[in-house]
Design brief:
Blueprint: H1 4-10, H2 17-26, E1 28-32, E2 37-39, E3 47-53, E4 55-61, E5 67-74, E6 78-79, H3 82-87, E7 94-97, E8 101-107, H4 108-117, H5 121-143, H6 148-158, H7 160-165, H8 168-175, H9 179-189
Antiparallel strand pairs: 1-8, 2-7, 3-6, 3-8, 4-5, 4-7
Helix pairs in contact: 2-4, 8-9
Length: about 190
Amino acid sequence: MSNPLISFLQQHRFFSAEEQDAIAAAFERRRYKEGDQLLNTGQICRELFFICDGVLRIMATNQKGVELTHFFLKEGSFCTILYSFNNDIPADEGIQAACDTEVLVINKTKLTELYTEVPGLKELIDRITQEKLLEKIKIRNAYLGEESEARYHLFLKQQPDVARRVPLKDIAGYLGITPQSLSRIRKSAK
C-alpha cells in the first residue's frame, strides 16, 4: 500500500529509499470518527498529524461559550497547534475531526529523532507548514468586511470539497454566523 505522506513529500523533494522507510516507520496511522477530539483546548500539543483522508478543524470556544472554527485542513496537509507544539505550552485551540478522518501521527520526540536521521526534512516540513498557514490566513482575511451571505458563497467557491463533507454548524462557526442564519442563506440561494 502506498504511503500518502511519502507521496506528498516526494512532490517537494527527493528522498532515498532508506529515508522513505525511516519516515514511514516513524509515523503511526490512526482513524477518527466525525466529532472525535485529537487535541483538547488547554492540552499541550505533542503530536504532528498528516491528513491522509478527511478534514480536521482547528477550533476554540469564545468567552460566550460559542464554539468557533478557525481553520479547516484536508488531506495532504500537516496539522498541529504550532505554538503549543514548538514551545510546550497549553494550546488555546483544539483539533477535531470534522468528518471521518485518517491521519498519520508522529510525536515530538520521534519527530526530533527523524529530523536528525533525514537531513533537510525539518526545513521541508517547516516550509510546508508555514505556507499552508499563510494560505489559510489569506482565505480567512478574504472574509473580513463581507456580509454573511457573501462569506458563505466565498467559502463555497474557495473550499467546495470541505463544504460537502463537514457539518453545517462547523461551517457556521467558521464563517462567524449562527447555524440558523446559515440555514436561511442556503434556502435563499436555492
